[in-house]
């Protein structure tokens, strides 16, 4: 069967349109990649700084909670917690802001709040982020060590290392928290009854 001129023209137009749309879709995806997310546990994942436009990709990936551990204003052009929170709300994702100052120390208040977030059954899976994922992983390691039924010291160290964020310098603190864990129905040492 031989194509008539107008059929040939329409076919060429269709092929050109599909090619153009495909190119722009590829270019958009290449310039707006999904965040690189790595697993810390079955329900907790970590990534570096996310951008506003990535929140929808996070939702489509199935995350129910985003935890921002990076203080606002650390770097020019960084999306603020308020901006990410607004986009998370539009996407139906819970957002928690637990800023950890730059450095090695993780405030105890952040550890206990993060532990409570991770314990929440309706919050999983949880995505933690900071600039590079380092502070988020450090905070998670201490929170996981504090959780009743949490991972063992070697499991925590292995999970953090596998995520590319080793926390070997926290081994003593992690071990102390694991040792102080309460079993269900018994209070932690020092807790009021």
Tags for this model:
single chain, 193 residues, alpha/beta, Protein-Tyrosine Phosphatase, Chain A, five-stranded mixed sheet, 5 strands, elongated, disordered C terminus
Brief write-up:
The chain has 193 residues and is α/β, with parallel strands linked by helices.
What does the model show?
- The chain is an alpha/beta fold and 193 residues long.
- The chain has one domain (33-180): Protein-Tyrosine Phosphatase, Chain A (Alpha-Beta Complex), CATH 3.90.190.
- The protein has seven helices and five strands; from the N terminus they run H-E-E-H-E-H-E-H-E-H-H-H.
- Strands 1-2-5-3-4 form a five-stranded mixed sheet, sandwiched between helices.
- A hairpin with a 4-residue loop joins strand 1 (38-39) and strand 2.
- Helix 4 packs across helix 5 (134-146) and helix 5 packs antiparallel against helix 6.
- The chain starts with a helix and ends in a 13-residue tail after the last helix.
- 31% of the residues are buried.
What is the CATH level 1 assignment? Alpha Beta
Strand arrangement across the biggest beta sheet = 1-2-5-3-4
CATH homologous superfamily identity: Protein tyrosine phosphatase superfamily
Please tell me the CATH architecture by its name: Alpha-Beta Complex
* Succession of helices and strands: HEEHEHEHEHHH
Distance between the termini: 88 Å
Chain-averaged pLDDT: 86
Break the fold down into its secondary structure elements and pairings.
Elements: H1 5-31, E1 38-39, E2 44-47, H2 55-60, E3 65-68, H3 81-91, E4 94-97, H4 108-119, E5 126-129, H5 134-146, H6 153-162, H7 171-180
Parallel strand pairs: 2-5, 3-4, 3-5
Antiparallel strand pairs: 1-2
